[in-house]
């Protein structure tokens, strides 16, 4: 699956012309936005929900206020295409060992 890294710093507007806020399901992908920006969220049990994930869980992306971000873990994990990318505050870096 192609990742969404080109959406960094992009405010997402819905088809109705409003700023995206909340969860959206597009085909097999769940997208979470806060104030128009891709951003992780938490569920009612306090579990972290990635900003982007496929329903089958084979692709996830962690975002914080419109930039790819995950501390001490990859921000993008794709189990089908077998790759992961590490980002902090929107900047890609080599994996920490």
Helix content: under 10%
Q: What's the oligomerization state?
A: single chain
The total of helices stands at 0
Mean pLDDT equals 95
H/E element string? EEEEEEEEEEEE
The low-confidence parts are none
How much of the sequence lies in strands comes to 35-45%
N→C terminal distance: 26 Å
Radius of gyration: 13 Å
The SS-based structural class is mainly beta
Number of strands: 12
- Cα shape: globular
Descriptive labels:
single chain; 97 residues; mainly beta; 8-stranded antiparallel β-sheet; two-stranded antiparallel ribbon; 12 strands
Topology:
Layout lengths: L21 E5 L2 E6 L2 E2 L2 E2 L5 E2 L2 E3 L4 E3 L1 E2 L2 E2 L7 E3 L4 E6 L2 E3 L4
Antiparallel strand pairs: 1-2, 2-3, 2-6, 4-5, 6-7, 7-10, 8-9, 10-11, 11-12
Protein model, in words:
- With 97 residues, the chain is mostly beta strands.
- 0% of the residues lie in helices and 40% in strands.
- Strands 1, 2, 3, 6, 7, 10, 11 and 12 form an eight-stranded antiparallel sheet that branches. A two-stranded antiparallel sheet has the order 4-5. A two-stranded antiparallel sheet has the order 8-9.
- The model has no long low-confidence stretch (mean pLDDT 95).
């Amino acid at each position: 699956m192609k990742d969404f890294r080109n959406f960094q710093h992009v405010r997402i507007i819905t088809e109705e012309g409003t700023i995206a806020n909340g969860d959206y399901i597009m085909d097999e992908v769940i997208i979470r936005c806060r104030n128009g920006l891709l951003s992780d969220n938490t569920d009612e049990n306090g579990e972290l929900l990635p900003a982007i994930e496929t329903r089958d869980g084979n692709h996830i992306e962690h975002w914080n206020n419109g930039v790819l971000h995950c501390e001490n873990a990859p921000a993008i994990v794709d189990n089908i295409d077998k790759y992961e990318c590490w980002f902090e505050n929107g900047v890609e870096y080599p994996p920490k060992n």
